[in-house]
Amino acid sequence: xxxxVTGGAGYIGSHVVKLLGERNYExxxxxxxxxxxxxxxxxxxxxxxxxxxxxxxxxxxKIFKPSVVMHFAASIIVKESINDPLKYYYNNTYNTIKLxxxxxxxGIKKFIFSSTAAVYGIPDEIPIKEDSPMKPxxxxxxxxxxxxxxxxxxxxxxxxxxxVSLRYFNVAGADSEGRIGQAYKESTHxxxxxxxxxxxxxxxxxxxxxxxxxPDGTCIRDYIxxxxxxxxxxxxxxxxxxxxxxxxxxxxxxxxFSVKEIISVAKKVTKTDFPTEExxxxxxxxxxxxxxxSKIKRVxxxxxxxxxxxLIIESAWRWEMKLKEILG
Length: 328
Ligand code: UFG
Fold this sequence. Notes:
By secondary structure, the protein is α/β, with parallel strands linked by helices. It has ten helices and 14 strands. It has helices spanning 11-22, 54-64, 78-83, 85-105, 139-157, 190-198, 226-241, 259-270, 294-299, 309-327; strands at 2-6, 26-31, 45-48, 68-71, 110-116, 162-168, 170-172, 205-208, 220-221, 223-225, 247-251, 257-258, 276-279, 288-289. A seven-stranded parallel β-sheet has the order 3-2-1-4-5-6-11, with helices on both faces. A three-stranded mixed β-sheet has the order 12-9-14. It is globular. The protein starts with a strand and ends with a helix. Residues 76, 78, 116-118, 169-170, 188-190, 193, 205-208, 219, 221, 259, 282, 285, 289 line the site of uridine-5'-diphosphate-4-deoxy-4-fluoro-alpha-D-galactose.
């Protein structure tokens, strides 16, 4: 089976490319290298190209002849989406519509979509089930929700078309063999920033908001190891190609950690008492996001292997130290 991976040079995409390669799938990456890295693509063909460039994308499809597309290429920073919404509607919504159109015109009928817990906004119930209403509170979440709505219509209008939408919670950690990991220099993610602060790359770590209605006043998130998330993609691929109906799955472990809890684990793992500072809330942050992950476990038989926050942060730490060596 031939799988085309958009954004395969990025953090999550590169882990999925690796797993596809290890499991002997024919894989090709399509990536404009705006945030990804060529070295992160460990298996298969690599085509440099932008999603906005439909001619290039179509020529790659004609050369590689995929039967499935996994779509990771997207902009992912919540705060940036608030300041520059058009960037998000253009990159995440418009470019995905163009990708879907090009796929359909070229007879590709299976699609695996990187969605996000951000589609839920501030959920009514925790843990969050897949049938909770989508009511995003930032343009990033809205840009992904729009594609989910479009996918639903597409699947109803076209019996042959099938998709799986994976709603990622907070992805962290790195390749167990230390070859790839989060390498985007401007990463705003909590675990990455905490570890970079421990390495002295930032002077201090800011805690965005200590007055949330949570036990310690800081936001709670469900952190999932990137290798377990990659596994969810392979299971989705198997499910779709074996005739599974279009579906949506949460990808999280079903347990949450506050910002302060993450900081304390990060200090323990790095053996560094790095400085932190209480700061104002960050716009667009929901107080608590925890997945109900029973559906993916039941339907796809997903069995996470790294459901342990210390393991996740240790693996991210090994990677951050290596990245520092690589980048100097
Ligand atoms: N945080 C800090 N200080 C920092 C960075 C983050 O206090 O320096 C806090 C944030 O305010 C938030 C929590 O740590 O409360 C997690 O923030 P991240 O930036 O690591 O992740 P987000 O929860 O904002 O977003 C991530 C992805 C989204 C996805 C979401 C779903 O970036 O794509 O998880 O849970 F939608």
